[in-house]
């Protein structure tokens, strides 16, 4: 098969983790006889430096033409520490999500048997945890009107959702739950927010169409608690944009490292596959970042974008093998030998060959 992949490495550790994922993608391509065509494009701080725009039109065109996008991470401390910056790397990520219509961000919480000891949560609490957060990705407070008054001593970010936006993501979550253990938790703040009351109203209508699915409604504060108190109680969770952002970083603690968590963003145009972590600037250029979240995002790309399950499963298997054999970066080395980012990538690719 011909697989045309747009590669947006971005900033910080982005290029380092993407390089490892590409070693794996190329090895899989070779083994399974796929023609892998990679087109690299700029986004984030590097795109601002080169073009003034964090998501240039040319990058968007490349993404639109591709079969899938593999995305590293964006963000740079020089913007994080400058509240008055007019253009920011994060705007590039948001523009990409909006322009590609990526309304559903699928973030599985992965529990690896060989890493149970790395989680701050007790083994018996997490060993059976297996849930997926479906995060709405193109609406809410991220995309509403934002601004300052003339004297710049008042600021606002408006949270908005329309019925069709809620309808499509809740339906997607129900369909997802139907293929799993048929449990759906709808996370909102309907006791306070009007947008959440719209979510609940829409969800209650759709709930009737899925009598086989056990539906539960939780307020986001209670959900945050439940994630660490009883994670195995969840199967599929669906929530709005910002709640999903925060809850999935929290859930990454269960797996043992933020560097392990993959995601798939799907919607109207080309799907994007990216780890949930950021550009981790403290580690940039040091060859220490964990590449497995990006490698597992590549596995999700084979599964969701190309429907190539053998390839996806082989990637997941070799990641499990690397964890079991201790071929891991410092964040999960647990005092044992820590391999560099590139050594882990080389090892994974060599297993496939
Ligand atoms: N999707 C994205 O591109 C994305 C996501 C989150 C944050 N950001 C941006 O990244 C920059 C840094 O943000 P931050 O520090 O809040 O979040 P971050 O995810 O970059 O890092 C938070 C912490 O997670 C751990 N971590 C993250 N990635 C890791 C990896 N691959 N291996 C091992 N440990 C890892 C580290 O302990 C790190 O200190 C900011 O500019 C932010 O806007 C981008
Ligand atoms: C960098 C930021 C805009 C982004 C988000 O909040 O969506 C990030 O935290 C993520 O989770 O992908
Ligand atoms: Mg985030």
Automatic annotation (TrEMBL):
Cofactor dependency: Mn(2+); Mg(2+)
Annotated site residue numbers, Important for catalysis: 142, 189
Keywords: Amino-acid biosynthesis, Branched-chain amino acid biosynthesis, Cytoplasm, Leucine biosynthesis, Magnesium, Manganese, Metal-binding, NAD, Oxidoreductase
Domain Isopropylmalate dehydrogenase-like: 4-348
Major location category of this protein: cytoplasm
Binding site for substrate: 97, 107, 135, 221
Free-text comment on the cofactor: Binds 1 Mg(2+) or Mn(2+) ion per subunit.
InterPro entries tied to this protein: IsoCit/isopropylmalate_DH_CS (IPR019818), IsoPropMal-DH-like_dom (IPR024084), Isopropylmalate_DH (IPR004429)
Entry's localization field: Cytoplasm
Annotated catalysed reactions: (2R,3S)-3-isopropylmalate + NAD(+) = 4-methyl-2-oxopentanoate + CO2 + NADH
GO BP term, example: L-leucine biosynthetic process
The EC number(s) this enzyme carries: 1.1.1.85
Name of the featured protein: 3-isopropylmalate dehydrogenase
């Amino acid at each position: 098969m011909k697989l045309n992949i747009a590669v947006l490495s971005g900033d910080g550790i982005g290029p380092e983790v993407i390089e490892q994922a590409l070693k794996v993608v190329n090895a899989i391509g070779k083994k399974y006889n796929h023609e892998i065509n990679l087109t690299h494009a700029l986004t984030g701080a590097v795109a601002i430096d080169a073009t003034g725009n964090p998501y240039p039109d040319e990058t968007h065109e490349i993404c639109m033409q591709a079969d899938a996008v593999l995305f590293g991470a964006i963000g740079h401390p020089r913007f994080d520490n400058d509240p008055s910056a007019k253009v920011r790397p994060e705007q590039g990520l948001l523009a990409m999500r909006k322009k590609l219509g990526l309304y559903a961000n699928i973030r599985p919480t992965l529990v690896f048997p060989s890493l149970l000891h790395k989680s701050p949560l007790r083994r018996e609490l997490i060993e059976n945890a297996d849930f997926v957060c479906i995060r709405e990705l193109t609406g809410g407070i991220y995309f509403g009107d934002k601004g300052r008054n003339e004297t710049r001593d008042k600021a606002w970010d408006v949270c908005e959702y329309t019925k069709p936006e809620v309808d499509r993501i809740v339906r997607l979550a129900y369909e997802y739950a139907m293929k799993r253990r048929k449990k759906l938790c709808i996370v909102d703040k309907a006791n306070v927010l009007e947008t959440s009351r719209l979510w609940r109203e829409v969800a209650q209508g759709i709930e009737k169409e899925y009598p086989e699915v056990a539906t539960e409604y939780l307020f986001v504060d209670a959900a945050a608690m439940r994630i660490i108190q009883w994670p195995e109680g969840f199967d599929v969770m669906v929530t709005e944009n910002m709640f999903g952002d925060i809850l999935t970083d929290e859930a990454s603690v269960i797996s043992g490292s933020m560097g392990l968590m993959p995601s798939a963003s799907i919607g109207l145009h080309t799907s994007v596959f990216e780890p949930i972590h950021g550009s981790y600037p403290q580690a940039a250029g040091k060859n220490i970042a964990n590449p497995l979240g990006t490698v597992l995002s590549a596995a999700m790309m084979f599964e969701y974008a190309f429907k190539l399950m053998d390839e996806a499963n082989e990637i997941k298997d070799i990641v499990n093998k690397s964890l079991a054999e201790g071929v891991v970066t410092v964040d999960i080395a647990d005092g044992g030998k820590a391999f560099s980012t590139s050594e882990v990538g080389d090892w994974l690719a060599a297993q496939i060959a």
